[in-house]
Amino acid sequence: MTEIDDKMLKQFFNDNKNEVEDNGFSERVMSHLPGKAQRLAKLWTLISFLLAITLFVILDGFQIIAGILRNVFVSLVQNGAENVDPKSLLIALIVLVVIGIRKACSIA
Amino acid sequence: MSQLNDISLVAQVVVFKNTKAFDELVKKYQSPIRRFFLNLTCGDSELSDDLAQDTFIKAYTNIASFKNLSSFSTWLYRIAYNIFYDYIRSRKETNDLDAREVDAISSVEQDNLGQKMDVYQSLKTLKEIERTCITLFYMEDVSIEKIAGITGCPVGTVKSHLSRGKEKLANYLNKNGYDRN
C-alpha cells in the first residue's frame, strides 16, 4: 500500500461524495415514530370524552338520571320495602363501590 | 458548537418528548446515514432507506440511553452499523448464502449513476467489515478511534481492515484505469 494509492483512494471517494437529497425521507421517519399512534388515540379519547360531557349537559342528563333514580326508589318503597334486607343492600353497595374504584384505577 | 446543538436537541427529545427537535436531528443526519447505507449495500437505495429509517426509529426509542460519552453522530453510526449487521445475519439465516452473494443480489442498478456505479462496484470487492471501515474513513471522515467505537473492534483490527480494504480497492481502481490525477 503506497502513499500514492492512499492519495488516489482519497481522491476517488472525494470525487464521489455527494449529499443525499431528503425527498420526504425525514417526513416518513417522523410519521413512523412509535408513540405517535398512542398520542392520536389519547387525543381521540379526550375529544370523545369532552363530546360526551357536552351532550350530557345539553340533553339534561342530570335531570334524566335523577328521574330514573326517583322512580326506582319510589317503586322500591311502594312494592316491597318490607322485604328488603338492609344487610344485602349494604353488601351490594360495598361491592359496587369496590368495582367502581377498581375501574377508576384501571382507567387512570 | 454543532455537538452542543446536538446535545441540546437530544435533551429536548428526552425531557419534553419534543418530536420537532428529533425532526431536526433526522434532517441533519439523514444524508450521511443514507449515504453510509448506500455504500454498505452497494447502491441499493430502497434497502438503504429502509435501514436508515430503522436506524432513526431505534435512535428515537433508545435516545434516553445516549450518555454523551461519544458524539451523537458516532452513537448514530453505531446504531446504523448494528442495524446493517442484524439485516445481514437475518438474510444469512433465511437464505443460507454468503453475505457477499446477498449483497450482489440485493444491489439494485439505478439510472444516471454514472461514475457512482464504479464506487459501488469497487466496494463489492470488499468484505462487509472492510467496506464499513473504508466507507466511514474515506467517505464520512471518521477517525480510526471512532470507527473502533462504532464497530466494537480494537483499533489495531480496524487498521488491518482498512489496510486490506485499501489494497483491494487500489488494485481494483488500477485495473479499471482510474485516473489518479
TrEMBL record, chain B:
Residues 25-92 form the RNA polymerase sigma-70 region domain. GO terms for biological process: DNA-templated transcription initiation. Keywords: DNA-binding, Sigma factor, Transcription, Transcription regulation. Residues 118-169 form the RNA polymerase sigma factor 70 region 4 type domain. Coiled coil: none annotated. GO terms for molecular function: DNA binding; sigma factor activity. Pfam families: Sigma70_r2, Sigma70_r4_2. InterPro entries: RNA_pol_sigma-70-like, RNA_pol_sigma-70_dom, RNA_pol_sigma70_ECF_CS, RNA_pol_sigma70_r2, RNA_pol_sigma70_r4_t2, RNA_pol_sigma_r2, RNA_pol_sigma_r3/r4-like, WH-like_DNA-bd_sf. PANTHER family: RNA POLYMERASE ECF-TYPE SIGMA FACTO, RNA POLYMERASE SIGMA FACTOR. Belongs to the sigma-70 factor family. ECF subfamily. This is RNA polymerase sigma factor.
